[in-house]
Amino acid sequence: MLVHNISQLLTLAGGPQRGADLGRLGIIDDGAVLIRDGQIAAVGAADALLAAYPDEPRLDAGGRAVLPGFVDPHTHLVWAGNRAAEFEMRLQGKTYLEIQAAGGGILSTVRATRGASVDALLAETLPRAQALFRHGTTTAEAKTGYGLELESELRQMQVLLEIGRRGPLEIVPTYLGAHMIAPEYTADPDAYTEIVAAGQLPALAAWWAEHAPDRPLPFVDVFCETGAFTLAQTRRILQAARDLGFPLKIHADEFDNLGGASLAAELGAASADHLVKTSPEDMRAMAAAGTVAVSLPCTPFGLADPHYTPARDILAAGGTLAIASDLNPGTGWCENMQFVIALSCRYLRLTPAQAIAAATINGAAALGLDDRVGSIEAGKQADLLVLKVDDYRHLGYRFGTNLAHMVIKRGVIYPVDEI
Ligand code: NIG
Ligand code: FE
Questions:
Q1: In what order do the strands lie in the sheet with 292-295?
Q2: Which pLDDT value is given to residue 97?
Q3: Taken in order 86, 92, 97, 100, is the CA torsion positive or negative?
Q4: Of 72, 95, 106, 325, which is best to mutate to test ligand 1, by the most ligand atoms within 8 angstroms of its C-beta?
Q5: Is any atom of ligand 1 closer than 6 Å to the C-beta of 374?
Q6: Ligand showing the shortest atom-to-Cα distance for residue 302
Q7: In this structure, which residue's CA is closest to atom 3 in ligand 1?
Q8: Which atom of ligand 1 is nearest to the CA of 96?
Q9: pLDDT at 249 over 70
Q10: Which end of the chain is more exposed for a tag (fewer CB within 10 A), N or C?
Q11: What is the pLDDT of residue 418?
Q12: Which of 299, 298, 326, 275 is nearest to 75 (CA)?
């Protein structure tokens, strides 16, 4: 299939974009893309490709802009229930951490999720996966983390693998048994830390070998934060995970700087995420280690908190910046990376071009998948987003509606119908 009549083809060619390099869209005006067997076979000017492949079936993009499907490198896709009542409590003056300390917050979603069967979790989670896809996300990382006990965490993992199998959204799974101290261990957080490090992680490795032997190992993530895991506890868990061969991620510096971002760099984590209270030393350490800095602007927005990731400082330090939705029931229930781009333009002070690169090729880098997704280049997976508009800058500029016209996943076309 030859996709042609593309006003602007944003290729994002050339790999992940560090520091001042961010925002290199690699635009081909009046471009075309040849797709074969779900892969991108050729990319170039429309007149050249139309002449070279005269008999190829054609897809007329109608003069619209085309870019790689979004790669959302941080979601908490699978949970049961909702926290609408807590949202209202926050508006009435309670803070997120106060609600958490009183047994609400993440723990309230843990209660609902522990009580849900695989089928119930699937029924609640699938519409969110479809919503991500409908808004142009073709690959999403997705975390467990609302079980805080092995059996329930593995049930969430099973749901995530099943959603990925059903498609079209591609799922990159992460184990987050260390999202919060399990309620049974609030008096002895070190005991729960040991359970995760010495119990859950080896059990996860064995479960993986049995249930998903053909898939790469999932990421292991820890919420390193006041009220969750200390730096020492985080180190214990991530080191155990690394010893078992799991790739690493971390939630760091959302409310307080405990040193999690520098720990991520030291341990060779693929990414450190949130990064609101991050210091210049942390930024330099991440840049030197190649740990991708993932900003989650929906989280402060969702909490009506004016503090966002100092994205420009991260870029000035030479860091690789990605953006993600953080889709979750507490701080930011948002399935729309277009809205994440709009927030990034305003509060991280990125240009649309920078935000788009952070949402595609650099999102792929945060998942170690930049050799397969995140750009439109020959040899990569054919994951494309056709916009409703002919100018990419409408991403960022406009918000609150869906600008996706058509989503293409592994060469299969999904028209976005918004009647
Ligand atoms: O990334 N910060 C920790 N985890 C989520 C919030 C999860 C929740 O509130 O349910 C986050 O923002
Ligand atoms: Fe998160």
A1: 70-72, 137-143, 170-178, 219-224, 248-252, 271-274, 292-295, 321-323
A2: 87
A3: negative
A4: 106
A5: no
A6: 1
A7: 223
A8: 9
A9: yes
A10: C
A11: 66
A12: 326
Give the pLDDT confidence of 51-90 residue by residue, as tens digits: 999 999 999 999 999 999 999 999 999 999 999 999 999 9
Tens-place pLDDT, residues 285-317:
999 999 999 999 999 999 999 999 999 999 999
Single-letter amino acid code for the residue at 362: N
Token pair for residue 338?
């277009």
- What does pLDDT average to over the chain? 97
Averaged over 395-416, what is the pLDDT?
A: 98
Taking each helix axis as running N to C, give the angle between helix 118-134 and helix 150-166, from 0 to 180 degrees, rounded to the nearest 10. Answer: 50
Burial 375-413 (b: 16+ CB within 10 A, else e): bbbeebbbbbbbbbbeebebbbebbeebbbbbbbbebee
Which of 326, 327, 333, 340 to mutate for ligand 1's pocket (most ligand atoms within 8 Å of CB)? 326
Tokens for 356?
């788009």
Bridge partners for 272 per DSSP: 250, 293
- Report the C-alpha gap between 125 and 80 in whole angstroms: 8
List, as one string, the DSSP characters of 30-60: EEEEEEETTEEEEEEEHHHHHHH-TTS-EEE
* Nearest atom within ligand 1 for CA of residue 332: 12
Q: What one-character DSSP code corresponds to residue 208?
A: H
Q: Which residues surround ligand 2, an ion (CB under 5 A)?
A: 326
Does ligand 1 lie within 6 Å of residue 110's CB atom? no
Give residue 102's pLDDT. Answer: 87
> Could you identify the residue written with the tokens 């949970």?
79
Q: Which two tokens stand for residue 289?
A: 């280690």
Any ligand 1 atom below 6 A from CB of 333: no
